[in-house]
Amino acid sequence: MEPAKLHYWILGWFSMALCCWCTSDTFTQSDSHPHSWKKLYLAHHWPVTVCKMNANDCHDPPQYWTIHGLWPDKGEDCNRTWHFNVTEIKDLMSDMRHYWPDVLHSSLNRTQFWKHEWDKHGTCAATLEVLNSQKKYFGKALELYQHIDLSGCLLKARIKPRSSYYKMPVIKEALTRFYGVTPKIQCLPPEEGEEAQTIGQIEFCFTKELQLINCTALKGESNPMQVHLKLGTQELSICNDTLPTYYPSEVQGHK
Ligand SMILES: *[C@@H]1O[C@H](CO)[C@@H](O)[C@H](O)[C@H]1NC(C)=O
Ligand SMILES: *[C@@H]1O[C@H](CO)[C@@H](O)[C@H](O)[C@H]1NC(C)=O
Ligand SMILES: *[C@@H]1O[C@H](CO)[C@@H](O)[C@H](O)[C@H]1NC(C)=O
Ligand SMILES: *[C@@H]1O[C@H](CO)[C@@H](O)[C@H](O)[C@H]1NC(C)=O
Ligand SMILES: *[C@@H]1O[C@H](CO)[C@@H](O)[C@H](O)[C@H]1NC(C)=O
């Protein structure tokens, strides 16, 4: 099998296996929940771009895509009494540090970022039985991230950080070919006097059965919640297909 096919096959198998863990019971419950949601976004961000947005406390950002979060398409802060407790995810700590680092505050106590993600998104995702504890929520996000293997996929498609620009459709087509679904790709718009946008975030969409789906909204579906990452004056937005795209390897030095 070609690597791409094999990969897709593994993903398919993985999704099917996950699917069987959810009972229809869960759906009935969550559908009557005030914060019912339909889709999960697994957001990856490119640490160099995140640092570019706010370089105050950023040191040697990783040169691989890291996790930003696992977000239901609806709801925030769904249970304010369910407090983040880092002890509950102590078994996941080495993967958390490696794959889900707080890129912006690399020198501070990094549990703050995880607490933020749990409070805002995890407590909403927890209506699903496979995500209904902190260990399950963070553990499943890590598992999905590792199976997606975005960094590996881009390298196989020979898309890597470089000083010359990419065409956005080239990146998009490589991802769609590899995964069979279209992710949501976000960029920093060109700064004053610049011609290129900078790729910053790639989100994959999953059903409640944790199967990959296109991130494009389906007919009759309300617009998914817009999750904006705003730091300082810069904000990520959907990449423009016609603009040259920069995939930076260093925070500074692109002029
Ligand atoms: C909120 O979380 C607490 C602590 O885990 C739990 O006891 C309670 O049932 C949750 N409330 C809702 C509405 O899910
Ligand atoms: C945090 O989780 C640990 C392990 O589950 C538990 O023993 C501890 O009591 C919890 N701490 C708080 C403040 O809830
Ligand atoms: C981070 O702070 C929490 C309490 O705020 C503490 O329990 C934890 O041990 C600290 N972690 C690190 C790595 O300093
Ligand atoms: C995603 O969209 C593409 C076309 O844009 C389509 O060919 C494909 O079947 C869709 N995949 C899923 C899983 O819906
Ligand atoms: C994309 O960029 C081009 C060139 O700057 C601009 O004309 C166009 O309006 C942009 N498209 C969107 C959807 O923003």
Quick overview of this protein structure:
With 255 residues, the chain is an alpha+beta fold. The chain has helices at residues 3-19, 24-31, 47-53, 93-99, 111-125, 134-148, 150-156, 168-179, and strands spanning 40-45, 66-72, 162-167, 184-188, 197-206, 212-213, 230-231, 234-235, 237-238, 244-247. Helix content is 35%, strand content 18%.
Estimated radius of gyration = 18 Å
- Which whole number gives the mean pLDDT? 83
Might you state the CATH topology name?
A: Ribonuclease Rh, Chain A
What are the secondary-structure elements, in order, as H or E? Answer: HHEHEHHHHEHEEEEEEE
**Which class in CATH terms?**
Alpha Beta
Q: CATH homologous superfamily - what is it?
A: Ribonuclease T2-like
Task: Please report the total strand number as a whole number.
Answer: 10
Mass-distribution shape? globular
Identify every distinct bound molecule in the structure, by name, code or SMILES: 2-acetamido-2-deoxy-beta-D-glucopyranose
**Number of separate domains:** 1
What does this structure look like?
Keywords: Disulfide bond, Endonuclease, Endoplasmic reticulum, Glycoprotein, Hydrolase, Lyase, Lysosome, Nuclease, Secreted, Signal. Its main location: endoplasmic reticulum. Belongs to the RNase T2 family. It is a single chain. With 255 residues, this protein is of the alpha+beta class. 35% of the residues lie in helices and 18% in strands. The protein is built from eight helices and ten strands. It has helices spanning 3-19, 24-31, 47-53, 93-99, 111-125, 134-148, 150-156, 168-179, and strands at 40-45, 66-72, 162-167, 184-188, 197-206, 212-213, 230-231, 234-235, 237-238, 244-247. The strands form two sheets. Strands 1, 2, 3, 4, 5, 6, 9 and 10 form an eight-stranded mixed beta sheet that branches. A two-stranded antiparallel sheet has the order 7-8. A hairpin with an 8-residue loop joins β4 (184-188) and β5 (197-206). The structure holds 2-acetamido-2-deoxy-beta-D-glucopyranose (5 copies). Residues 180-182, 213-214 line the site of one 2-acetamido-2-deoxy-beta-D-glucopyranose.
